[in-house]
């Protein structure tokens, strides 16, 4: 049985939580896809969303980064780098 996009988003959010980073599973009607909203620990007003579309995790349109649906380590590394950069800027 194939893993659904929602289940993959839940697994990824749980992986972030185990790393001490708040993350929520989200649905976007406009994109028609599941994603994970990652909260920046130093400033909870800042967040990023990672979207699972067509078997690939993406960030924002035009961003060259993406990762395979099951490549959770790559997604965590990308989001952690983003969080770290924002923490330094604060």
What secondary-structure arrangement, pairings included, does this model have?
Layout: H1 5-18, E1 23-28, E2 33-39, E3 47-53, E4 56-58, E5 66-68, H2 72-89
Antiparallel strand pairs: 1-2, 2-3, 3-4, 4-5
What report would you give on this structure?
Helices cover 36% and strands 29% of the residues. It has helices spanning 5-18, 72-89; strands at 23-28, 33-39, 47-53, 56-58, 66-68. Strand 4 and strand 5 form a beta hairpin. The protein is globular, with a radius of gyration of 12 Å. The termini are far apart. The mean pLDDT is 86.
Round the Cα radius of gyration to an integer and report it: 12 Å
Helix and strand content put the structural class at alpha+beta
The 3D shape can be described as globular
Strand count, sense and barrel status of the largest sheet are:
5 strands, antiparallel
Number of distinct beta strands: 5
With strands numbered from the N-terminus, the spatial order across the biggest sheet is 1-2-3-4-5
Helix count from the secondary structure assignment:
2
Mean pLDDT: 86
> Helical content, roughly?
25-40%
Distance between the termini: 44 Å
Strand content: 25-35%
Q: List segments where confidence is low: pLDDT < 50 over at least 5 consecutive residues.
A: none
Q: What order do the SSEs take from the amino end to the carboxyl end, as H and E? A: HEEEEEH
């Amino acid at each position: 049985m194939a893993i659904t996009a929602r289940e993959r988003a839940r697994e990824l959010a749980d992986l972030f939580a185990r790393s001490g980073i708040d993350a929520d599973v989200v649905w976007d009607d406009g994109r028609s896809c599941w994603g994970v909203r990652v909260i920046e620990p130093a400033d909870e007003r800042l967040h990023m969303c990672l979207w699972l579309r067509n078997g690939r995790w993406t960030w924002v349109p035009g961003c060259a980064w993406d990762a395979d649906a099951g490549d959770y380590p790559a997604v965590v590394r990308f989001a952690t780098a983003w969080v770290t950069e924002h923490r330094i800027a604060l």
